[in-house]
């Protein structure tokens, strides 16, 4: 599929065909393409938690869903049918360590030197590459957040080290009919609205 076609087709899918697994070759391609993401200083400070078995996915949803939310949110029903969940985790320490090396010279590891937390940004790049690979492979995906109050339960359930921060999760599978997000009624901004040429 051509890049422009992939970009036009990319959308968040919130309903998946039950009992249809993701081909292992496609799963590995999704993971491999995530590793092509750019990273400051080539720090490569992100990791990927893959939940694929029924037990792993059930543990994910139990840990990541606030009590009572499953009954309140109908979109969660379709999302939970996804046969593959990938959680991108950023590693701040990898960046602070990398920039304290001789060729960078920030020996104090001071986080204040960073204009923005590149560990989260670069992990987001990896997530986007996975989303585009999913579309290119004829599948669907939804990127969604893990509520902050659920992160301790998520860490405990999967043994996630404290230095790793989940920036969200991707539910991946074969798309099933679902209703468009009501947010789409807002419309997509035009280039003229978003781009400021030369100055504001």
The helix-strand sequence is: HHEHHHEHHEHEEH
Tally the structural domains: 1
| Gross geometry | globular
CATH superfamily (homologous) name: NADH Oxidase
Beta strands, count: 5
By secondary-structure content and strand pairing, the structural class works out as: alpha+beta
The average pLDDT score comes to: 93
The fraction of residues in strands falls at 5-15%
- Helical run tally: 9
> What is the top-level CATH class?
Alpha Beta
Radius of gyration using CA atoms only: 18 Å
Helical percentage: 25-40%
What is the CATH topology? NADH Oxidase
Main sheet?
Answer: 5 strands, antiparallel
At CATH level 2, the architecture is: 3-Layer(aba) Sandwich
Q: Give the low-confidence spans.
A: none
Distance between the termini: 36 Å
Please, could you describe this protein's structure?
With 200 residues, the chain is an alpha+beta fold. The protein has one domain (3-194): NADH Oxidase, CATH 3.40.109. The protein is 38% helix and 14% strand. It has helices at 3-9, 24-34, 54-64, 69-72, 74-79, 92-98, 118-136, 151-158, 191-194, and strands at 46-51, 84-91, 140-144, 164-166, 169-173. The radius of gyration is 18 Å and the shape is globular.
Features:
9 helices; five-stranded antiparallel beta sheet; 200 residues; 5 strands; alpha+beta; globular; 14% strand
In terms of topology, how is this protein built?
Layout: H1 3-9, H2 24-34, E1 46-51, H3 54-64, H4 69-72, H5 74-79, E2 84-91, H6 92-98, H7 118-136, E3 140-144, H8 151-158, E4 164-166, E5 169-173, H9 191-194
Helix pairs in contact: 2-7, 3-8
Structure summary:
This protein is 38% helix and 14% strand. With 200 residues, it is an alpha+beta fold. The chain is globular.
């Amino acid at each position: 599929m051509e890049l422009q076609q992939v970009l036009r087709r990319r959308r968040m899918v919130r309903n998946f065909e039950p009992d249809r697994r993701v081909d292992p070759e496609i799963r590995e391609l999704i993971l491999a393409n995530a590793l092509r993401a750019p990273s400051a200083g080539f720090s490569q400070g992100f990791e990927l938690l893959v939940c694929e078995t029924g037990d792993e996915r059930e543990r994910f949803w139990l840990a990541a869903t606030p009590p009572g939310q499953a009954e309140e949110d109908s979109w969660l029903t379709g999302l939970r049918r996804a046969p593959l969940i990938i959680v991108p985790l950023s590693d701040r320490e990898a960046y602070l360590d990398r920039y304290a090396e001789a060729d960078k010279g920030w020996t104090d590891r001071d986080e204040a030197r960073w204009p923005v937390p590149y560990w989260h940004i670069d992990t987001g790049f990896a997530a986007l590459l996975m989303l585009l690979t999913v579309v290119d492979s004829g599948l669907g995906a939804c990127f969604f957040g893990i509520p902050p109050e659920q992160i301790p339960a998520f860490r405990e359930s999967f043994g996630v080290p404290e230095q790793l921060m989940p920036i969200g999760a991707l539910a991946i599978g074969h798309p099933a009919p679902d209703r468009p997000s009501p947010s789409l009624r807002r419309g997509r901004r035009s280039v003229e609205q978003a781009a400021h040429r030369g100055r504001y």
